[in-house]
Amino acid sequence: MTQGDPFGRDLASFWGPQGPDIDFNEVTGIDVLIQRIIRRISTPKGSVVGCPNDCIDVRTYLGAGITNADVQGIQAEIQTQILRDEAVLSCNVTSSYNTTTKALSVAIRGSSALGPFSMTLSVSAVSVQLLNTSANG
Fold first, then answer.
1. How far is CA 132 from CA 43, 90, 105, in A?
2. pLDDT digit string, tens, across residues 31-48
């Protein structure tokens, strides 16, 4: 890592129906953090060696019968996981569930060593899709 690039470099990922895949292009800066956040909330808890309490797979919560209380709980779990990343200084998560499409919309606003960031995700039972991101919050 260089002084101007506190998150280092990573291989770019894209998310499809089977989960993350590598496209072998390099990403830097806030894009590294965005990818870490998506991995953190789309990886089953305990599946990362040496981190038994890290990660959640938010897709496992989706399906018929989700209540507003369930959405609030999922939102809190997402926020907790994002705040576990040492590069995230603060974070606010808001979400809503569409009962027709059975998709969860997740808006994340936070602050990092590179400044504010925001991202919006669409989560279904089979995929986590990054809809947009901004390095200006």
1. 20, 19, 12
2. 888 888 988 898 888 887
